[in-house]
Amino acid sequence: MIEASTTLKTEHAGKYLTQLCKHFAHKIDVSYDYDHGECRFMCGTAILDAAENALSIKAISPDEEQLQETQSVIERHLVRFAFREEIGPLQWQRRFEPVSAKGEA
After folding, report:
1. What is the pLDDT of residue 95?
2. Hey, which of 17, 43, 83, 95 would disulfide with 50, CB 3.0 to 4.6 Å?
3. Domain tally, the chain
4. Low-confidence ranges of the chain (pLDDT < 50)
5. What is residue 97's predicted lDDT score, i.e. its pLDDT?
6. Which helix (H) or strand (E) holds 78?
7. pTM listed for this prediction
8. What's the rounded Cα separation, in Å, for the pair 90 and 8?
9. Contacts of residue 105, Cβ cutoff 8 Å, sequence gap at least 6
10. Is residue 77 part of a domain?
11. Cβ-proximal residues to 54 (8 Å cutoff; 6+ apart), any chain
């Protein structure tokens, strides 16, 4: 699996997490509360964690193409919901996790 993470500094982290999860729940499997959410897309999973001044996002996918798609979906929607803050492109950090022959990380 390939993983990428980013953090958006914002005082509205819980609000954005809730908006994203409610929006995606109309089409995909989502679980969330005010400070943690998981959105399970066909291309990968997005894990969102809200703190007092930041929204942390982790995207996990089986390959590079699907990871980019997962990141893109989350980022496009976040930019739309956070339009009052005029956030720029998110700076994603990559992490590659080897998978064993049994499918375990």
Report:
1. 82
2. 17
3. 1
4. 99-103
5. 63
6. helix 64-81
7. 0.86
8. 7
9. 1, 97, 98, 99
10. yes
11. 7, 8, 9, 10, 13
